[in-house]
Design a protein that fits this description.
The structure is a homodimer. By secondary structure, the first copy, chain A, is an alpha/beta fold. In chain A, 30% of the residues lie in helices and 29% in strands. Chain A contains twelve helices and 20 strands. Chain A has helices at 50-57, 85-88, 113-116, 151-154, 159-173, 187-199, 210-218, 232-243, 257-270, 315-336, 352-355, 358-364; strands at residues 8-16, 21-30, 38-47, 61-68, 75-79, 96-97, 101-109, 122-126, 134-138, 142-144, 178-182, 202-207, 223-226, 247-250, 253-255, 285-289, 294-300, 308-312, 348-350, 373-375. In chain A, strands 3, 7, 8, 9, 10, 19 and 20 form a seven-stranded mixed β-sheet that branches. In chain A, strands 13-12-11-14-16-18 form a six-stranded parallel β-sheet, sandwiched between helices. In chain A, strands 4-5-2-1-6 form a five-stranded antiparallel β-sheet. In chain A, helix 5 (159-173) crosses helix 10. Chain A is globular, with a radius of gyration of 22 Å. The interface between A and B is large, with 42 and 42 residues.
């Protein structure tokens, strides 16, 4: 390809065709010339978050992954099962860029003073299409990293840190005093644990494996329950009694866990109940499903009274609800604590071409604790 | 029994013993002498609502019902399965009176002018323990029925009418413009249908049987979907497109229906979507579970984006939230439209003794449309 435009580069695309084939490929695109209030960022690090995988793979059956071609010309495909196609209807035939967040260096700017002030700076960006070599974005979407911070250190500035802070903020705004988190050994869960320890908030961590209990305890967590333990329900109730948590954020989404948490909260509340009410405790119990690590249906037995709620929780609408001023305060905290509270770890850094390879997908697609991967869109790119 | 106290009478009690036996019986109690702001009501009609049955029978297995003794001395028992005993923990060993609402005649009053003004009046009361011959209650809890209205006509003044009005009020307060109701051919559902027709609100009625479609259509309902139909999901989506309903009240609670409604709402919203969002429509979709006609677990597939909520809905906390002024306005509407919008029908009127008989329970306990029963606590009571 000819590269006479310094903003021309590769971008990862996900396409689901009307016949049910998912196709991942790299396309060459020109990042637009910056408007006065815009800058062009050379992206050097972008994490693959669980929230990115939904757009990347859709409802495709990962056992059907195949790849043809090689390097940046590779095309990887998979089948979307017929039963899942209804949920894909809105995106059929659209070649979609992927990558919610990333970080890189500002290589060109518009004419405004605010934009020009960013030239050469290392910035973090939330704005989609981050699995691209170059991105043109508004200057106000950039968060300037502290001196000395690398793009890799700032790549996950937004999704996980703001989600973790958003959970604590939601807890406060909805009148709860402690919270529950599932898949608590995740990168996000470890951040939330650090935030809660720092802010003196009681947190019940639910994990799936014994070794994750040790990991969180070593990080100072006081309440850790493993759903693999035969005493899980009793352990959970005791932690809920100890903390008084009546709101939970569940990353698994499917299966019985969300309902078990409501059941546990009700049991904990009833331990101190003075009088029987057939409608259960009058204290509102809430579980927000913010992820879907467990893709099976959600199922619960309604044995937790009538004062309960379950619902979706998503970062962007939450930030819209709290408004720009409160959002900015959260972002500033992330920048201030980037190398401590909000530090992320990655198991690998891969190129755009590597991100298409089935062997790489098999690793980063498993959504396992400790397997988070960083894409470096300008790695291994031969100058044209 | 001796009856030298004119306020002494029988009261139906439900007791679950720690060993798991449910026991229904009649006990003789003295209604307290009225305080200055209280009145004594001779209860002549009290409905058995689904919400009463939860307290009456708890989690007992209805196939194990047995009765010993006869008449007002009968004792009826049933077994609560071991797995359900945790949910009963709060009421074990307590002999609980039953009956949320009823109507009757004021036979004695306290010394206040407001109380004395009620003497001889036929009133409706919400206050628990209505399956009693006599109830002493605050004058302000009484709703004076319109001239000529009988206790039977006023017996269901509160639970169903206020619940139906509360659904419409919740819809308005939470910013929705149309609503969905399940088990829509119920007494409550027919009321809601009349309210919505009167107020010009679009209502999607979901029923379980073809004959219930005809019943609601004959009552003027425009959108009626039968979950027994092979085209149910498509019919539901079309009705949601036509009405724009984004809030539902589900009486069944268990099974897949609540989730299907959310799925249908999302599909309806996506028909007019301009752009794909992997997180689904940004319009909030809400289903409130206000009953549990289906006692199986609740199950749903999360294919309706992230802007959704599910939760319990209960009349009393709702009325507390809207406050006494708004509550009084709803009550006045019920009194004004008692013989039209809020008319109830009953399949039988039974005595307290009859309410204990397994054959009667087999009828009124089935919670079927058109099988609502009225208890007349002063029927067939021999003067002592």
């Amino acid at each position: 390809m000819s590269n006479d435009n310094p903003r021309r580069g590769l971008q990862l695309r996900s396409l689901i065709k009307p016949d049910g084939e998912l196709e991942l490929s790299l396309v060459s695109v020109d990042a637009p010339a910056p408007a006065p209030d815009e800058v062009v960022v050379r992206i050097e690090a972008a994490p693959i978050n669980p929230s990115d995988m939904g757009l990347l793979f859709g409802a495709a059956d990962m056992d059907t992954l195949r790849s043809t071609g090689s390097g940046t010309g590779a095309v990887t495909t998979a089948r979307v099962p017929e039963r899942a196609m209804r949920a894909m209807a809105g995106r059929l035939g659209q070649s979609l860029p992927v990558g919610n967040e990333g970080a890189g260096v500002v290589i060109d700017t518009g004419t405004s003073a605010a934009a020009q002030a960013l030239l050469g700076k290392t910035v973090a960006v939330l704005g989609g299409a981050m699995y691209s070599q170059y991105r043109t974005i508004k200057d106000e979407q950039c968060l300037v990293l502290p001196p000395g911070a690398t793009p890799a250190e700032g790549a996950s500035c937004f999704v996980n840190p703001l989600t973790a802070l958003g959970m604590v903020e939601t807890m406060r705004r909805e009148g709860h005093k402690a919270l529950v988190h599932t898949a608590a050994a995740s990168n996000l869960g470890q951040m939330l644990n650090r935030i809660c320890i720092h802010d003196g908030i009681a947190l019940v961590n639910i994990v799936r494996k014994p070794e994750q209990v040790a990991l969180l305890r070593a990080a100072g967590a006081k309440h850790v329950c493993s759903s693999a333990s035969p005493t899980f329900i009793e352990d959970l109730i005791q932690a809920l009694v100890d903390t008084g948590a009546t709101i939970a954020f569940d990353a698994t989404g499917g299966g019985k866990l969300a309902g078990q948490i409501l059941t546990g909260m009700e049991a904990a509340l009833n331990r101190s109940a003075k009088e029987y009410s057939r409608y259960g405790s009058s204290t509102h119990k809430q579980v927000y499903l913010y992820g879907g690590l467990d893709t099976s249906p959600t199922e619960f037995t309604r044995n937790f009274g009538m004062a309960w709620g379950m619902g979706g929780w998503l970062l962007t609408p939450f930030l819209q609800r709290i408004g720009p001023h409160a959002t900015q305060a959260l972002k500033q905290r992330v920048a201030d604590e980037l190398k401590t509270t909000f530090a992320s770890r990655y198991s690998a850094e891969i190129s755009l071409a590597e991100a298409l390879q089935p062997e790489a997908i098999a690793r980063y697609g498993q959504r396992a604790t400790g397997a988070k991967v960083l894409i470096h869109p300008n790695k291994d790119i031969a100058a044209a």
